[in-house]
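Two records follow; treat each independently.
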Amino acid sequence: MKLYDDLAEWWPLMSPPEEYADDAERIARLLRPEGAAGGRMSILELGSGGGHLASHLKRRFDMTLVDLSPRMLDLSRRLNPQCRHLCGDMRSLRLGETFDAVLVFDAISHMVEEHDLLATLRTARAHLRAGGLGVFCPDFTAECFVPGTTVGGTDGADRGMRYLEWVRPGIAGTAYRADLVYVLRHPDGEVRIEHDGMTLGAFSRTAWVRALAQAGFGQAAVERQSGRDVFLAEAV
């Protein structure tokens, strides 16, 4: 996607860090229920992007952030200098160390084929201590897929952007399509329009539970949060 490469500098205006506060709070409660004791948990976030979710979670947890895009990691390093950053593919990464939890937020939606989903879950399991928790937050499962159009964007000090995202109707196998249009206002007043798009995955809940078991997790739980299915499973 252009947004993760050539247009990465616009990401903070499309999806500002402050918009992740509620998601971060919900995830923090899953990772450490209210009243739970203990020191700071170590978390590996795969597909951490620009670090906007981590900018909230780092206050409570020790975060290691991994993403495939060097430009998105550069954004995250500026926002989260306290966190460790690594470039890697969530399907094949092996760090040779374990964590208390592995989190994959909406980046898991970029896994379109079931073998890619399974590879990512195996990466998560490989980096968890026994009893550690995997948390996976796809945009959609097949059961909760809702096509539609979203608009948004914000203004910065000297530039601004607006976007329209169209999630097309229908899932073909495990894949659906989203198209995006960006309107970008540069500091000199120039306005340009860019088109972007992505093919994303929407697996059934049954496929998710099967893949988690194959990857080495115990019985999965499904939490409904803000209209999405969130999967939680312990490493066994």
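The next record belongs to a different protein.
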Amino acid sequence: MFRTVAALVMALLVLGCSGFRDPPPSKYPTQEVYIEDTTLGPQDVFEVRVFRHDDMSKLYEVSEEGTINFPEIGLVDVGGKTPAQVEQEIQARLADGYLVNPTVSILVKEYKSKTISVLGQVRKPTTIPYAAGISIVDAISQAGGFTPMARKNAVTVTRVSPTPDDAKKTLAFTVPVESIASGKAKPFFLRPGDTIFVPERWY
């Protein structure tokens, strides 16, 4: 009888421990930069460079109304436009009586209007601005790193992705962040709107 009970207890312990194993990681995209959503919004910061006109070349932050105030031409509506569209508009307006054949380029520094949420077992759950090339390891570092109770290889990322018919679908990935940080798994790069959730371990 004692042996039977002992064997049953041992079996339950084995089954219980198996529940603590991390789930297998998802197959996830590994491209570094997403280019389908580059439109500008409030608080985004970008640099405008006008060739041979350093007085016009500086950093701008998009206002809550989606505009910037540019030298000579005044207010420029940039909200919802891509950097290329803003380049063309500034260039065309400068050419209309201000400069001869101006060349304008724009470099986005921060997409503050596009954010990433980091929740769960991190030291400082937060929302951070999206930046091109930001990885899940970067985002968790900005949230203060993992807590001692974090399941580091069972992190989930929820992503709303557009579809060809302009609908949207929600994707979820299980990401082995600890393995990525140690070079044992491929990087996971984030995109605007991603939500990272670090679950709590059970033991």
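Discussion point: The first strand starts at residue 45 and ends at 50. How would you locate this feature using only the token line?
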